[in-house]
Amino acid sequence: MNVAIPFRVWIAAAVAFAADKASAEALNPRALLEGVVSVREQIPPSYLHIRYTFESRLIRRESEYVVLFDGALRYFARTNSNERSRALFDGKDVMLLGGDDSVIVRDLDTQTSDLLFDPCALGITSYSWHITPRVAMSVDAAKISLVGEERINGRVCQHVRAENPEWTVDAWIDPSADFGVYQHETNSRGGRTTMRSVYENTAYPWLPSRVEQDSYRPDGSFMGRKIVDVLEARKAGRISMETWTLGGLLQGLTLLTWVPVTDVRKGECIGFWRDGRLGPPFPWEPAPAPPPMSFRRVAILVVLAALVAGPLVFFWLRRPPASPGPGDALPS
Predict the structure, then answer these.
(1) Under 8 Å between Cβ of 124 and 173
(2) CATH architecture, range 24-279
(3) pLDDT digit string (tens) for 51-85?
């Protein structure tokens, strides 16, 4: 016997099926990682004012920076120190201004202690220069799995694990909050790094307001803590392309007459910055080399020396012998 199913039941079943399908797609672990990357890569050009703190059992250092970024392009300038410290990545080269008013040019994968991480990866990278959001989230890992639903600071998050031959990444993501990453952990043979993020700025939802990172050695012992507090974050509108140049790095500074610019990849000075432009490696005119002395000139100098010294030698040889003094012994 055929039983007629009411139309509204068909509709309810279709809606439930669509919801289940959407929920399944939303909880696809690779899709969750891709969601994080997509949001981070769409952050508009921005201005940040951050406080960076490093703590260990022996020391504590704190510094503040103004940060401008537009995609991969970024500029960091330290603001709470008398020592000049600026860093810039123009998409190809890193330029660093040091306290001696000299500029060093190097590659992104030859990191120094200067702060120049990708701001789009804040909270998912341990401040390495070359780590992008895609690399930090290990989207291309061979094995990605959904561990399950867990709470981080009272927020329901999806725990995703990406396994690589050399390391494992665990991320706790809330897809309902612009794919915010509330905890990120990396385990490798070099140790473990755990980052915990807090999102408080509703006017700037793309990045966390505070990130605490704890690092541990392979034996589990504590190495140190890094804290980034975002004191101000806002969209910057259109950032001038001049910002991502050597002139942008040095803008607004009272500098020495000549600012040497050295490319460490070539091991040589590539020029001197002055008056808003990069000049040649040797901005001063070298003194002209003296002309070689001819035989005639040498002969003339010898004759002149003889004419001056000859009479002096003659009179010195003809001088009278000195008379004995009262205390001198007379010859017997």
Answers:
(1) no
(2) Clam (2.50)
(3) 999 999 889 999 999 999 999 999 999 998 777 89
The residue with tokens 């279709």 is: 14
| Contact partners, residue 77, CB within 8 Å, separation at least 6 | 65, 66, 85, 86
Contact status, residue 181 vs residue 124, Cβ threshold 8 Å: yes
Beta bridge partners of 51: 64, 229
R_g over Cα of the chain: 36
Q: How many residues does the chain have?
A: 332
Q: What pTM was estimated for this model as a whole?
A: 0.77
Whole-angstrom Cα distance, residue 122 to residue 257?
Answer: 38
Which residues does residue 33 pair with via DSSP β-bridges, in sequence order? Answer: none
Using DSSP's 3-state secondary structure scheme, residue 87 falls into: strand
At 155-210, the pLDDT tens digits run: 999 999 999 999 999 999 999 999 999 999 999 999 999 999 999 999 999 999 99
Integer CA distances (angstroms), 93 to 28, 96, 106, 110, 265, in order: 37, 10, 6, 11, 11
- CA geometry: angle at 204 spanning 236 and 175, to 5°? 135
Decide the pairing of beta strands 277-279 and 268-274.
antiparallel
Find tokens 């910055």 and name the residue. 273
State how far the Cα of 158 lies from the Cα of 137, in Å rounded to an integer: 14
Burial class (CB in 10 A: 0-12, 13-18, 19+), 307: exposed
* Element spanning 213, H or E: strand 210-216
- Burial profile 181-190: b = 16 or more Cβ within 10 angstroms, e = fewer: bbbbbbbeee
Could you state, in order of their start, the residue ranges of all structural domains in the chain? 24-279
At residue 48, the 3 state secondary structure works out as strand
Q: How far apart are CA 110 and CA 206, in angstroms?
A: 28
Q: How many CA atoms lie within 13 A of 76 on its CB side?
A: 25
Residue with tokens 């330290």: 78
The beta-strand segments (E) located in 236-304 are: 259-263, 268-274, 277-279
